[in-house]
Amino acid sequence: MNNKGLLIVVSGPSGSGKGTVLKQLLRTDDNLFYSISATTRSPRERENHGEHYYFLEKQDFLDRIKNDGMLEYACYCDNYYGTPKDEVYQKLEMGKDVILEIETQGAMQIKEKCPEAIFVFIMPPSMPELRRRLTDRKTEDLETVEKRLSTAICEINLAYEYDYVVVNDTVSDAVEKLRAIILANKNSKNKMKKFIDEVLNYA
Ligand code: 5GP
């Protein structure tokens, strides 16, 4: 069997609910590893260093890029975000499926570097619903909400580049769709090639 894990890249506009969907999925799949990103943005209320993000000073972040410590990175809404490389590769080697919850510029870098990764875009049901979700969560001021909405339009334009699109209408449906996508990809002919070869070798 090909024992290396799957690399699963999940993007979606801020407010699409991808975090909630992933949290639920992670609760029920022991083989999934959620990659903790690094960022230069300030922690929000109830966010902890090493749990939600590694919160870094800008210079520290830039040094890590220079030292080839990031699998990808992007500047998003005036802050840097990036995926620390080593842990992702270690977990994949161990056979864990690794989830990267990242924005679209970073996802396109992964597409170049790791063409075997699978790409899932989480969509809000509509733009008015996205605005409602961003406003209701009250973590950003109105100016930031407007900025995130216009960023969302650019991001949704990139949904065409992804392998799968999951509409997050209800969280439980979105989780089931994501679970089905992962299961199907674990049984793809690419993932099963080594197994087929082994069976034929002993025929
Ligand atoms: P937030 O500030 O709301 O936590 O995240 C803003 C955006 O940055 C989200 O779309 C989130 O998925 C993305 N993001 C989080 N971590 C990373 C990362 O490591 N790399 C990239 N490229 N984007 C990230």
Would you write up a description of this structure?
This protein is 46% helix and 20% strand. The longest helix has 16 residues. It is an alpha/beta fold and 203 residues long. The chain contains eight helices and nine strands. β5 and β6 form a beta hairpin. α1 packs across α7. It has a domain of 137 residues: P-loop containing nucleotide triphosphate hydrolases (Rossmann fold, 3-Layer(aba) Sandwich), CATH 3.40.50. It is globular and about 65 Å long. The mean pLDDT is 94. It has a five-stranded parallel β-sheet, with helices on both faces. The site of guanosine-5'-monophosphate has 14 residues, from β5, β6 and α4.
What is the fold's blueprint, element by element?
Blueprint: E1 7-11, H1 18-27, E2 32-34, E3 38-39, E4 54-55, H2 58-66, E5 70-76, E6 79-84, H3 85-93, E7 97-101, H4 104-113, E8 118-123, H5 127-136, H6 142-157, E9 164-167, H7 171-186, H8 189-201
Parallel strand pairs: 1-7, 1-8, 2-7, 3-4, 8-9
Antiparallel strand pairs: 3-6, 5-6
Helix pairs in contact: 1-7, 5-6
The structure holds guanosine-5'-monophosphate (5GP).
